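Final report, closing paragraph on structural work. Over the funding period we assembled a curated collection of sequence-structure pairs, and we close with a single example.
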Amino acid sequence: MPAAVLSSTNTNNHVSVAAVGDNPKSVSVPVADSHPSLLGPLVKTVTKPLSEQRIAVIGAGPSGLSVLCAFAAAATPITTVDGESNHMIPKITCFERQSDIGGQWHSTPWRTGLGEYGEPVHSGMYPHLWSNGPKECLEMANYTYMQHFGKALPSYPPRAVLLDYLKGRAEHFDLKKYIQFNTVVRRVTFGNKHNVVPPTTSSTDEQHNNSSNNDSELLSTSSSSFTVVTQDLRTKQETVHEFDYVFCCSGHFHVPHVPTFAGFDDDGSCSFHGRIVHSHDVRSFAPFRNQRLLIIGTSYSAEDIALQAYKFGCRHIILSYRTRPMNFDWPEGMVTRPLLQKVVNGHTAVFIDGSMEENVDVIVLSTGYQHSFPFMEQSLALQTHNTLWIPDLYKGLFWKANPRLIYMAMHDQWLTFSMFDAQAWYARDVILGRMDESQVSIESWKQDMEKWTLRHQHLDLTDDEAMIRFQMDYTADLIAATDYPSWDYEMTVQTLLDWEKAKHENIFTYRDMFHTSAVTGTMGTKPRIPWLENKDDSLQSFINNANNSDTDQAT
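Its predicted structure, as stored:
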């Protein structure tokens, strides 16, 4: 039975249902005679033939690439009894404001603030950044590390290695053909009735994205479609597009949350005479050598900046926490203090318990990021903080007020690449009509929302294992409904628990551990050079540092 594809209602609350599935033809049917479980104020389906439907993907970072890969996999030719056939998919266009894929992993070694074309620099990753979690928990089940690198590697790679892995899958599935680079999304609206003659797309864009239409004809944006306005950053030319679905894959780790403290900005002058920087804009640790460094926050960025600063010669580090300390066994010279209250006398930090640290040279704000979507009209903009569950998203994906808008990877993350794939495959199958109608009714989604919301409300947010299992169960739940390859989920959970345990045993040596892939069973290798001593974060150095001798695997 073909399943219905969900979307938002129009302003008149009229509902239509399109039958889609193995047959790419769209069939309009009377609502009363079809899918009564889908009736409701949020439901309106796309009635175009599947091959004429259009999907926008905003961002070509890991989650955007997951979406592209999911649809590319669905379009893979298959051999049937009648010969070779090709699965039909909608027309997909991905808009990426950077010059290449990777999102956060596509870092610039020195740029902060604004990029080449005057846009805010997206990535907050710095040179010498290494993964702070096992690569075995970042593995994509349809494109493994062994498939890409052809050999076992250490479990904690630097940024360049993981970017190479992402690029490898993109090349394997030919994903760049869907992407318009150096193209920023300026505005996304839904249901605004207006006619626009957009500028002609440049020939460069046509050559770079041979899957998308040249929208040079008159567009009539009706109440059942999204209007997406983009700008080519090189030519400054704007183009208006019409889409049936929008995947928002812009991420939520690029707009810093920047608090202020007394002494930062008093009557237009700063009482602190040193440097204040958010972790997003840290690009080098050499300036911290022999400095007294104050880090505010207990996030992963605070943890890693402390480690990197120590690695590169900073021996006086103060870690200031708001709720609870990190509780690692820090070496001499690294001290923990409660939240900063104020800065006085140029270089003295005063904390809320009255304690003080003098001669502070640099303050790094590792205070997190905001979910920010300035390109979305207000009725479409997700508003949330960094949390494991977002009650405004059905299945953690579909915008409740308009389920044809899909927000990818918006949760706090224990899992990343694998969870993004699970989300992408699930959303893809809803759009392609592969789900049983009982799985995609608003009623069933509401029940599912209540189940996960209740579980999240009772979740102990100080219990790492409980949070890991929550996200693993969510990911497994999505995968169970699709054809995405499953793996040993419990093994992934145990790997994450081993990682947490190793960090608390020795925060400086956990990256020297190695783990086993839950997808392939391949055991990682012990690095020849310990992380604390290894200051070469290049791809080739990491591969050469892999110790593939069985006798050297033992700990």
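Residues 1-44, 193-222, 549-555 have pLDDT under 50 and may be disordered. The longest helix spans residues 464-480. We thank the funder for supporting this effort.
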